[in-house]
UniProtKB/TrEMBL annotation:
Keywords: Membrane. It comes from the Bacteria. Its main location: membrane. CDD domains: OmpA_C-like. This is OmpA family protein.
Length: 160
């Protein structure tokens, strides 16, 4: 009798343990979902530079309606795979004082985080934000196109 009872329990434990993602690693489903949205892997973290997806006007941190919807859709799809935490890093072009740009970039990151939390149906406290100002440009600030690309938010997802 004992042998019959322990076999189903052992089988159930094996099945359930196979469903868990090992600590510090992403599941294949999570990696596939991140790749689908354009995330790239770098030193164990996955990041998406949203400059080509979400552009902010000069001196503006408000998300356009279509950008907000896109963020919410992406967040919902990633949350469905168990990705419940992220870091949003806001950036600006090189116009303006450093303190102003850092505050503006933080507001941008906060806007993306708010939309992300709403779309993923997760607590806003699962998301952290940083305002990096003009410190890390991805394009030349000498052209209007380059400055537009630098007005962005990067989403970073670290291993669980």
């Amino acid at each position: 009798m004992r042998k019959r009872l322990s076999t189903p329990v052992l089988l159930a434990a094996l099945i359930l343990s196979g469903c868990q993602t090992p600590q510090g690693k992403f599941s294949q489903e999570q990696i596939s979902a991140m790749k689908t949205w354009g995330f790239t892997e770098n030193a164990g973290d996955w990041s998406l530079g949203m400059s080509d997806k979400i552009l902010f006007d000069t001196n503006n941190y408000q998300l356009k309606t279509d950008s907000r919807q896109q963020i919410q859709t992406m967040a919902a799809k990633l949350a469905a795979t168990g990705l419940m935490h992220a870091r949003m890093e806001g950036h600006t072009d090189n116009y303006g004082e450093e303190s102003y740009n850092e505050a503006l970039s933080l507001k941008r990151a906060d806007q993306v985080a708010d939309a992300w939390a709403e779309g993923a149906h997760i607590p806003r406290t699962n998301l952290t934000t940083r305002g990096l100002g003009k410190k890390y440009p991805i394009a030349s600030n000498k052209t209007s196109q380059g400055r537009a690309e630098n007005r962005r938010v990067t989403v970073v997802i670290s291993a669980p």
